[in-house]
Amino acid sequence: MRLYLDSAKKRLLSYKDLAEKTFRQLNDQQIHWQPAGQPNNIYIIVKHMSGNMLSRFTDFLTSDGEKPWRQRDAEFIDDAPDATMSDLLDMWNKGWDCLIAAIDSLSEEDLGKTVYIRTEPHSVMDALNRQLSHYPYHVGQIVFLGKIMRADGWDSLSIPVGQSQQFNDEKAAGK
Predict the structure, then answer these.
(1) What phi, psi does 50 have (nearest 5°)?
(2) How far apart are CA 136 and CA 125, in angstroms?
(3) For residue 66, what are the contacts with CB-CB under 8 A and spacing of at least 6?
(4) What is the pLDDT of residue 99?
(5) CA 84 to chain CA mean position, Å
(6) Residue pair 138/126 in contact by the 8 Å Cβ criterion
(7) Per-residue confidence at 1, pLDDT binned at 50, 70, 90?
(8) Residues 23, 80, 144, CA angle at the centre, nearest 5°?
């Protein structure tokens, strides 16, 4: 079971890293950019993710994951159009720090315990799996928006197109 907790943490942190590699390619104005149709901008997505993490993982084992103080609907409003990348990263890290501290505090025995999200019971493992599907969804949105904005200036976050064989050869050679 410790293997599961370590794996969950590793996977979550890999998605955190993907988003942060995207943030490093953007400026203060770009975090507020929205394509036509009013979809969420990066600032809103981060605001939502941080709010979700703080709600779900504050007092994780002892209180419902949907805290009474959370204002979920307000997370989808860009109420700080002058917020900078630094502001965004502060909000981002606050959520991630809460999530990682909660995972680090768990013991193997905790995985079978029941926690609640909006009064719905979940095993701790299921609650973690729920977030393992939720956060990558939003990180994908962040990466996609970043890629749109950077266009030809985008630095690939994975194996660049046309370099798969080279990557595989290097991996096989132990590089």
Answers:
(1) -65, -45
(2) 17
(3) 55, 56, 72, 117, 118
(4) 98
(5) 19
(6) no
(7) confident
(8) 30
Candidates 104, 113, 39; CA nearest to 76 is 39
- Can you tell me the distance from the alpha carbon of 167 to that of 49, in angstroms, rounded to the nearest whole number? 32
Half-sphere exposure (Cβ direction) of 103: Cα atoms closer than 13 Å? 25
Backbone angles phi, psi at 62, to 5 degrees: -120, -5
Structure tokens at 172: 């096989």
Residue 80: the pLDDT is 96
pLDDT of residue 98: 98
Mean pLDDT within 57-81: 97
State both tokens at 78.
């860009």
State the Cα–Cα distance between residues 166 and 161, nearest whole angstrom: 11
- Per DSSP (E only), the strands in the chain are 114-117, 120-123
Distance CA 80, CA 90 (A): 14
Distance CA 94, CA 148 (A): 27
